Amino acid sequence: MFCTVIDMRGDYALIKYNDTGIISEVAIALLPEGIDTGDQLKFEDFAFTTL
Length: 51
Description:
The structure is a single chain. It contains no helices and 5 strands. By secondary structure, the chain is an all-beta fold. It has a 5-stranded antiparallel β-sheet with strand order 3-2-1-4-5, with no helix packed on it.
């Protein structure tokens, strides 16, 4: 599943899943190091990776 980081708020990031449009709040500790707003991610096997 592909998603986009749409906002960073303290210890959490807002992630929008591209195929469903659903927005979720995800702890930054679960995301790849160095991500920023606008970055594209892939969510697979319960882990996020950068594209």
